[in-house]
Specification:
Order of helices and strands: HHEEHHEHEHE
Strand order of the largest sheet: 1-2-5-3-4
Structural class: alpha+beta
Helix content: 40-55%
Distance between the termini: 24 Å
Number of helices: 6
Length: 167
């Protein structure tokens, strides 16, 4: 019985991974323009897909209010994600290691969390995304893509990641 249960589980996992791959293919097609501009990157991992949005198109420095120009891309992302309502979506805010200390954002933790929440709220308010499938996480400067040793690397580290997780 245990072997049959494990084999069934493995088959389900393979099917979920295959579906995740199909979703990534569709997302890549729908976001082709933004990907070609370098504003959005789509990364495929074994168990998840990550849509990486460059912070320069999302927010002004030290702010968590979405720029008007990115909203069209976010709607395209939301429409694509809505085709797969079974997925969980985690929105991760990231910063570089330059400290911030303002009354609104005493540290990069608060800034990164506010940015993730801004994207989450946009999805909930401007699309039909199921809020029960969404979560927001502020990771501050602690998960960089590159060492924070140059302006270009810091720019890469300032981002919002939309992580698509199969159920």
């Amino acid at each position: 019985d245990e072997i049959e249960t494990l084999e069934a589980l493995t088959a389900e996992q393979k099917a979920a991974l295959g579906q995740l791959e199909q979703q990534a293919d569709q997302l890549e097609l729908q976001l082709k323009e933004e990907i070609e501009k370098g504003e959005i990157r789509l990364k495929r991992y074994k168990t998840k897909t990550v849509i990486n949005i460059d912070n320069s198109i999302l927010f002004d420095s030290g702010r968590a209010t979405l720029k008007q120009d990115v909203k069209k891309s976010l709607i395209k992302i939301a429409n694509a994600l809505n085709k797969y309502p079974e997925n969980n979506i985690q929105i991760e805010g990231h910063t570089d290691d330059v400290p911030i200390n303002t009354p609104q954002y005493p540290s990069n933790w608060e800034l990164s969390a506010a940015r993730a929440i801004a994207v989450l709220r946009f999805f909930v308010e401007k699309s039909d995304m199921d809020p029960r499938k969404l979560s927001a996480v502020g990771l501050g400067e602690y998960h960089p893509l590159a060492p924070n040793d140059s302006p270009e690397n810091r720019r890469l580290n300032r981002r919002v990641d939309i992580v698509i997780l199969p159920q």
